[in-house]
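Here comes an entry:

___
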Amino acid sequence: MEEIKIKPCPFCNEEFTVKETESGGFIARHENETCPMLTDGQNGYVYNDPDQLIKEYNTRPVEDALRARISKLEQELADAWRKAAELEGKYRDLLAAQKRARRAAEAAAAAGGEANNG
Protein backbone atom coordinates (compact mmCIF):
# COMPACT_ATOMS: atom_id res chain seq x y z
CA MET A 1 0.00 0.00 0.00
CA GLU A 2 1.23 3.49 -0.85
CA GLU A 3 2.46 5.61 2.05
CA ILE A 4 0.52 8.85 2.49
CA LYS A 5 2.76 11.91 2.76
CA ILE A 6 1.73 14.61 5.19
CA LYS A 7 1.42 18.11 3.74
CA PRO A 8 3.72 20.83 5.06
CA CYS A 9 2.55 23.31 7.70
CA PRO A 10 0.00 25.75 6.24
CA PHE A 11 1.53 28.61 8.26
CA CYS A 12 5.29 28.26 7.77
CA ASN A 13 5.60 25.54 5.09
CA GLU A 14 7.84 23.47 7.40
CA GLU A 15 7.72 19.70 6.90
CA PHE A 16 5.79 17.78 9.56
CA THR A 17 6.88 14.51 11.09
CA VAL A 18 4.54 12.11 12.85
CA LYS A 19 5.70 11.33 16.41
CA GLU A 20 4.35 8.84 18.90
CA THR A 21 3.49 10.28 22.31
CA GLU A 22 4.27 8.69 25.66
CA SER A 23 0.61 7.71 25.93
CA GLY A 24 0.75 5.81 22.61
CA GLY A 25 -1.04 8.43 20.52
CA PHE A 26 0.34 10.20 17.48
CA ILE A 27 0.97 13.90 16.83
CA ALA A 28 2.36 15.93 13.96
CA ARG A 29 5.40 18.05 14.77
CA HIS A 30 7.86 20.31 13.08
CA GLU A 31 10.87 22.15 14.41
CA ASN A 32 9.94 25.77 13.58
CA GLU A 33 9.56 27.33 17.02
CA THR A 34 8.38 30.66 15.61
CA CYS A 35 5.41 29.10 13.80
CA PRO A 36 1.97 30.00 15.22
CA MET A 37 0.83 26.42 14.67
CA LEU A 38 1.02 24.38 17.87
CA THR A 39 2.41 21.02 16.83
CA ASP A 40 3.29 19.43 20.15
CA GLY A 41 -0.08 17.84 20.90
CA GLN A 42 -1.15 20.69 23.19
CA ASN A 43 -3.72 21.74 20.62
CA GLY A 44 -5.77 18.61 21.33
CA TYR A 45 -4.98 16.83 18.07
CA VAL A 46 -3.62 13.52 19.31
CA TYR A 47 -4.61 10.54 17.19
CA ASN A 48 -4.65 6.81 17.87
CA ASP A 49 -3.96 6.04 14.21
CA PRO A 50 -1.09 7.77 12.34
CA ASP A 51 -2.91 7.37 9.00
CA GLN A 52 -5.96 9.18 10.41
CA LEU A 53 -3.67 11.95 11.69
CA ILE A 54 -2.16 12.40 8.22
CA LYS A 55 -5.60 12.36 6.60
CA GLU A 56 -6.86 15.05 9.00
CA TYR A 57 -3.76 17.24 8.60
CA ASN A 58 -3.98 16.94 4.81
CA THR A 59 -7.63 18.04 4.84
CA ARG A 60 -7.62 21.76 4.21
CA PRO A 61 -11.03 22.77 2.89
CA VAL A 62 -10.32 26.50 2.75
CA GLU A 63 -7.01 25.96 0.96
CA ASP A 64 -8.63 23.47 -1.42
CA ALA A 65 -11.49 25.90 -2.15
CA LEU A 66 -9.03 28.72 -2.81
CA ARG A 67 -6.97 26.55 -5.14
CA ALA A 68 -10.15 25.59 -7.04
CA ARG A 69 -11.17 29.26 -7.27
CA ILE A 70 -7.71 30.27 -8.48
CA SER A 71 -7.83 27.55 -11.13
CA LYS A 72 -11.25 28.73 -12.29
CA LEU A 73 -10.11 32.37 -12.42
CA GLU A 74 -6.96 31.42 -14.35
CA GLN A 75 -9.15 29.65 -16.91
CA GLU A 76 -11.49 32.65 -17.14
CA LEU A 77 -8.48 34.94 -17.62
CA ALA A 78 -7.08 32.71 -20.38
CA ASP A 79 -10.51 32.75 -22.07
CA ALA A 80 -10.66 36.55 -21.78
CA TRP A 81 -7.19 36.93 -23.34
CA ARG A 82 -8.20 34.59 -26.16
CA LYS A 83 -11.38 36.62 -26.75
CA ALA A 84 -9.38 39.88 -26.65
CA ALA A 85 -6.99 38.50 -29.28
CA GLU A 86 -9.95 37.54 -31.48
CA LEU A 87 -11.47 41.01 -31.10
CA GLU A 88 -8.14 42.65 -31.85
CA GLY A 89 -7.90 40.62 -35.06
CA LYS A 90 -11.43 41.64 -36.06
CA TYR A 91 -10.65 45.28 -35.24
CA ARG A 92 -7.51 45.20 -37.41
CA ASP A 93 -9.52 43.61 -40.25
CA LEU A 94 -12.17 46.33 -39.89
CA LEU A 95 -9.54 49.09 -39.97
CA ALA A 96 -7.95 47.55 -43.08
CA ALA A 97 -11.36 47.31 -44.79
CA GLN A 98 -12.13 50.90 -43.81
CA LYS A 99 -8.79 52.04 -45.23
CA ARG A 100 -9.44 50.18 -48.50
CA ALA A 101 -12.93 51.71 -48.75
CA ARG A 102 -11.53 55.20 -48.12
CA ARG A 103 -8.87 54.73 -50.81
CA ALA A 104 -11.48 53.41 -53.24
CA ALA A 105 -13.73 56.39 -52.49
CA GLU A 106 -10.82 58.80 -52.96
CA ALA A 107 -9.85 57.09 -56.22
CA ALA A 108 -13.46 57.24 -57.43
CA ALA A 109 -13.72 60.89 -56.45
CA ALA A 110 -10.45 61.66 -58.23
CA ALA A 111 -11.62 59.78 -61.33
CA GLY A 112 -14.95 61.58 -61.23
CA GLY A 113 -13.23 64.94 -60.88
CA GLU A 114 -11.00 64.22 -63.87
CA ALA A 115 -14.05 63.27 -65.94
CA ASN A 116 -15.81 66.52 -64.99
CA ASN A 117 -12.71 68.59 -65.78
CA GLY A 118 -12.03 66.88 -69.06
Observations:
- The chain has a mean pLDDT of 85.
